[in-house]
Design goal:
829 residues, alpha+beta, seven-stranded mixed beta sheet, 32 strands, 36% helix, RNA-binding
Length: 829
RNA sequence: GCGGCUCUGGCCCAAUUGGAAGAGGCGUCUGGCUUAGGACCAGAAGGUUCAGGGUUCGAGUCCCUGGAGCCGCACCA
């Protein structure tokens, strides 16, 4: 907290009767009684679903919440004013590790911490005056909610979209649980930042890869920031190429490889397989067994950070096996190296050092042959050449690629491979299936029973939810297996199929499963026949607007899209996409850096609200700049926001024209400004330019002040019109101030439903505009002209100007560009 | 390494999408009102639009090169 802030808080300042504490105390109960933001869902108006990312209940709201909620609320309130039937729900993403860790530390149940925090946040949200429909509130940790999370899991399971497999998986040693690919950021745990290691485990997966292409294709339907779409596109990582078979000496099955560069096949001088793949295990010869085992051990011990480092020297080991290059017939060695990944493509590659820098490095280090198959550009002195050029050294008795540029060479060789049955065109995706099991307590139990005779048996729907056993405190301490496993009387059950002894699955679901469908639960939170009422979903989905952070680009936002598509395929949902428009707010930082405990530069939202009031803080957030930019709290002036609100508020006490007066008799100049402001604000709000919209309201306030003090005066009807307009526009950002203004103006609450002001188009037309006359781009004169002057008239007028004639000084004109009514540019001869 | 975004008065940011560089706010300064004020009212100063080149009658805006900052991905064959 800066000194300035404390000063503001301590010294009472005369704000001309403006008292935000009193206003907050006065209006909150009034609104709660009126409950104006409940979605009607009765067909009386066009529906609009406004959604903001629900909150994780770790303590009270912070500055980031303050920003995202303020921005989201501007849009929601705008649509309420415009008369839409807005659904603006709120809930909590209340499963997850922080609650569990807190429970261990305090020796209590995670629910205690969770629900206490939810109440704290709910109180703060109410104080923050957000236009939520509280009747739809949900918590993902409620059994009534997670029963449907489990129900959905079972439907996925039935369709083969949820399955178990053994694999090397990401493991966070700190959180003692596995992580999805999406939760590993730069080799570190997305949640706690600890280095991630690998473990071989049998885990549950969702088959996201089945939807890779549709996740790409349907991006066309989304009005999302290009940045996010790009991230998803890269994450899905579609690449077109070919499978090619390489025969291996003494082995029945050929090795299949994926390559995007089949045109370089003639340059494949060795092969590399992933060391942790079954293939490596099978191929290694007895002579090389010792070296291979040693290498594999070293690879497993390395962390993801080490493995991902691209400047690390290549490592690998010869497996003793040889394959045959299908086009050259050459005998080529097969190596194992950890730069080849076991879970991408087939876990094996053909190495073409001449055209691939990784293969070049490897070949150089281990003395393997290098053959160029693309002619590098003149003067190329690098190593591997990855650019385009004519193929060279690429012919055998049956096929000749030499001289062809890469695309043609690719096509020809793949045709040949397909004819010979040696390969085929294919598409590969970088996206992996979503690993959803977690070895932790505070999540939805996976509703599967493992039976020695029947295998994986789903818990029957009528036995849902599978509730968590009552465990708390030290019992939850991470020890690498799920805490649920130690609840023996919970684990041991009769198999639903054969009634024999069986055990429950002891893992819980990734909390991203909970959040992949919460927006659907909102449409019918009381529904008992399924996760949501399909009819209600038809009415509300897809959500028109989603507001939240960009950190979810390839996490929640991708998972929610996947769930929506599966539910669509199940016939439960018309929508194929969950969120039509997306707005990512920036971060609130302080003095150039992210706020953090270690830096000690944190700003507490509650303190800010105490010092400046809810409205001033909301206004500061919205006015700071474009919503997707980061905002630096040190650059901003909540005191300035407060000053403006007070200035606006004082107008409402100055108005002398009675409520209901006919505005049309008011001062024309001020009326024009008012209507222009509303027209501009409408457009600015639709395109997320809230900061500019606030600036327009400030202009209107300034113009109104001037009209009162030195213009037509406080009794003019135009002044009332302007101030009522200010109140309504301001109600999106500063609801308490706006409501108080509305009352001062003689109206009943609530200004939030006053209705968006109607623009009179006649008041938008200007009587005259200033036309700039340039000579060779330099301004020489200005003319007041009619807005609908013709090009010809304007040109004549401009040429007749004294200033122009003087500047031309007898020179003729070579060219005259006329852009009526704003500009004439004369190019002299 | 690859890709994306950003760069405009001291500061946060506008600029009708190629047409007068400045809307709004903060800060500074001057005057008024005031016992006084950080409150209120009126007004003012402040610029090579990151640098260089190009396209154009005209560039903050489009293109190229470079710089700075932020972000994403990073052995994906």
């Amino acid at each position: 907290m800066s000194e300035q802030v404390e000063h503001e808080a301590d010294a009472p300042i005369d704000r001309g009767g403006y008292d935000f504490h009193a206003m907050q105390a006065k209006w909150r109960p009034v609104w709660e009684k009126l409950d104006p933001f409940k979605a009607r869902d009765d067909g009386s108006a066009e529906r609009r679903y406004a959604l903001t990312m629900f909150s994780y209940p770790s303590g009270d709201l912070h500055m980031g919440h303050g920003e995202v909620f303020a921005l989201h609320d501007v849009l929601a309130r705008f649509w309420f004013q415009q008369g839409y039937d807005v659904m603006n729900p709120i809930g909590w993403d209340s499963f997850g590790l922080p609650a569990e860790n807190a429970a261990i530390k305090r020796n209590e149940h995670p629910a205690t911490y969770t629900y206490a925090n939810i109440e704290t946040q709910a109180e703060s949200i109410r104080r923050y005056a957000l236009s939520f429909d509280w009747s739809r509130r949900l918590h993902t940790s409620d059994p009534e909610y997670y029963r449907w999370t489990q129900w959905l899991f079972l439907r996925f399971f039935e369709r083969g979209l949820a399955y178990r497999k053994a694999s090397y998986v990401n493991w966070c040693p700190n959180d003692q649980t596995v992580l999805a690919n999406e939760q590993v950021v730069q080799g570190r745990c997305e949640r706690c930042g600890h280095e991630v290691t690998k473990r071989e485990l049998t885990q549950w997966y969702f088959k996201t890869t089945d939807y890779a292409q549709r996740l790409l294709d349907d991006m066309d339907l989304l009005q999302w920031p290009e940045e996010i779409l790009l991230q998803q596109r890269n994450w899905i990582g579609r690449s077109e190429g070919a499978f090619t078979d390489f025969r291996v000496e003494g082995r029945e099955e050929p090795i299949k490889v994926f390559t995007t560069r089949p045109d370089t096949l003639f340059g494949a001088t060795f092969m590399v397989v992933a060391p942790d793949s079954k293939l490596a295990e099978e191929l290694v010869t007895p002579e090389q067994r010792g070296a291979f085992d040693e290498y594999l051990t070293a690879v497993k011990a390395s962390t993801e950070i080490e493995r991902l480092s691209t400047d690390r020297e290549k490592t690998g080991v010869f497996l003793g096996a040889y394959a045959t290059n299908p086009v050259t017939g050459e005998r080529i060695p097969v190596w194992a190296a950890d730069y080849v990944l076991s879970d991408y493509g087939t876990g094996a590659i053909m190495a073409v050092p001449g055209q691939d820098s990784r293969d070049w490095e490897f070949a150089e280090k281990f003395g393997l042959p290098i053959v160029r198959t693309v002619q590098p550009e003149e003067g190329f002195d690098g190593k591997a050449y990855t650019g385009d050029g004519p193929a060279i050294n690429s012919a055998n008795a049956e096929v000749d690629l030499n001289g062809l540029p890469i695309p043609e060479a690719k096509a020809r060789i793949v045709d040949w491979l397909q004819d010979k049955g040696l390969g085929e065109r294919t598409i590969n995706y970088r996206l992996r299936d979503w690993l959803l099991s977690r070895q932790r307590y505070w999540g939805a139990p996976i509703p599967i029973i493992h039976c020695p005779s029947c295998g994986e048996v789903p818990v029957p729907d009528d036995q849902l939810p599978v509730e968590l056993p009552d465990q708390r405190g030290a019992a939850l301490a991470p020890r690498g297996i799920s805490p649920l496993a130690s609840a023996r009387d919970w684990v041991d059950v009769a198999c639903p199929k054969c009634d024999g002894p069986a055990e429950r699955d002891t893992d819980t679901m990734d909390t991203f499963v909970d959040s992949s469908w919460y927006f659907l639960r909102y449409v019918s939170p009381e529904y008992t026949e399924g996760p949501f009422d399909p009819e209600a979903a038809r009415r509300w989905m897809p959500a028109y607007q989603y507001v939240g952070g960009k950190e979810h680009a390839v996490l929640h936002l991708l998972y929610a899209r996947f769930f929506t598509k599966v539910l669509h395929d199940m016939g439960m949902l018309d929508a194929v996409e969950p969120f039509t428009r997306l707005l990512n707010q920036g971060q609130v930082i302080n003095e150039g850096k992210a706020m953090s405990k270690s830096l000690g530069n944190g700003v507490n939202l509650g303190d800010q609200l105490d010092s400046f009031g809810v409205d001033a803080i909301r206004l500061t957030m919205v006015f700071a700049g474009p919503p997707d930019d980061d905002i630096d709290w040190a650059d901003l002036s909540p005191g300035g926001s407060l000053k403006f609100l007070q200035r606006a508020w004082r107008l409402s006490g100055a108005v002398e024209a009675p409520a209901g007066v006919d505005f049309s008799t008011g001062d024309l100049a001020l009326r024009k400004i008012t209507h222009r402001t509303v027209a501009d604000a409408t457009e600015l709000l639709e395109s997320y330019r809230f900061n500019v919209m606030v600036a327009r309201v400030m202009e209107l306030v300034n113009a109104t002040r001037k009209a009162i003090d030195s213009g037509p005066g406080a009794a003019d009807p135009a002044v009332r019109e302007a101030v009522e307009t200010v109140a309504i526009l301001l109600s999106l950002v500063a609801p308490y101030t706006a409501e108080d203004m509305w009352e001062n103006l003689g109206h009943e609450p609530t200004v939030a439903k006053a209705g968006w002001p109607k623009v009179d188009p006649a008041l938008l037309v200007q009587d005259s505009v200033t036309c700039v006359v340039q000579i060779a781009g330099k301004v020489k004169d200005r003319l007041e002209v009619s807005p609908d002057i013709t090009d010809a008239e304007l040109e004549q007028l401009a040429l007749a100007s004294d200033a122009v004639q003087k500047a031309l000084d007898g020179r003729g004109t070579r060219k005259v560009i006329v852009r009526a009514p704003k500009l004439v540019n004369i190019v002299p001869a």
